[in-house]
Write a structure and sequence with these properties.
The protein is an alpha/beta fold. The chain is built from nine helices and nine strands. Helix 1 links the parallel strand 1 and strand 2. Helix 1 crosses helix 7 and helix 4 runs parallel beside helix 5. The longest helix is centred in the middle third of the chain and has 21 residues. The mean pLDDT is 89.
């Protein structure tokens, strides 16, 4: 039987984060789940909710056992509109993600698994893609034991808050999805969560999970016992 592992999850109330949390709580091979979230989470016997204080992660995650070597999942992300400024956006999508990576190093994490985005490139013309690329580069520079980066296309799923452009894009592309290349096709948040969870089970997972590779992952994988 595989050894039970603990998991740390940042961004547990977001689109991918919610799907990841559900999968980790169902997974009999996952022990305790420590979730960083600003909003309340439904109680669960395996769940420990932690304050989402990225300025002092050692204190926020003090309940994680020192010998745990957890799998650390990062599903943090915002938008320019929600953040209010480029500086605030970068604080969440770069600074907080990097802070979690630095904590993972200090904690001796077994693996860091991060949700980035298709087109992430530190030299991109788009500010969004540039920040994602900068973040990926900063994480790769850390002495992590293992790093997996997921680069999904436009995410599909039940959002708490819809952005007009995303709603229109999803409505327009749904009838055309079989004709859209897999690399650019909108992808379900549950597929991204499933692909990351599956990568955590592998001895040598891919360094990058492309959107095309993640398509359909939720149908192909199920936590043990389900």
């Amino acid at each position: 039987m595989p050894r039970t592992r603990h998991a740390v999850l940042a961004g547990a109330t977001g689109l991918v984060g919610r799907a990841l949390l559900a999968r980790l709580l169902q997974d009999t091979a996952t022990g305790r789940v420590y979730a960083l979230a600003r909003r309340p989470l439904p109680p669960h016997a395996k769940l420990t909710a932690c304050p989402a204080d990225f300025n002092d992660l050692d204190r926020a995650l003090a309940t994680v056992p020192g010998e745990a070597a957890p799998d650390v999942y990062c599903a943090l992300g915002t938008t320019l509109k929600a953040a209010g400024s480029q500086a605030a956006f970068r604080r969440v999508d770069h600074d907080h993600v990097l802070a979690l990576g630095q904590w993972a190093v200090r904690a001796g994490a077994r693996r860091l698994l991060v949700v980035s985005a298709v087109g992430a490139d530190a030299h991109a013309a788009s500010f969004y893609s540039r920040v994602k690329g900068d973040t990926e580069a900063a994480l790769r520079a850390l002495p992590l034991r293992s790093l997996v980066i997921a680069r999904p296309s436009l995410l599909d799923g039940a959002r708490d808050q819809w952005r007009t452009g995303e709603r229109l894009a999803l409505a327009f592309t749904r009838p055309l999805r079989p004709l859209i290349p897999a690399a650019l096709r909108p992808i379900g948040a549950d597929d991204v969560a499933a692909a990351l969870w599956q990568a955590a089970q592998q001895a040598e997972p891919p360094a990058v999970l492309t959107s095309a590779a993640m398509q359909g992952a939720a149908r192909r994988t199920a936590p043990p016992g389900h």
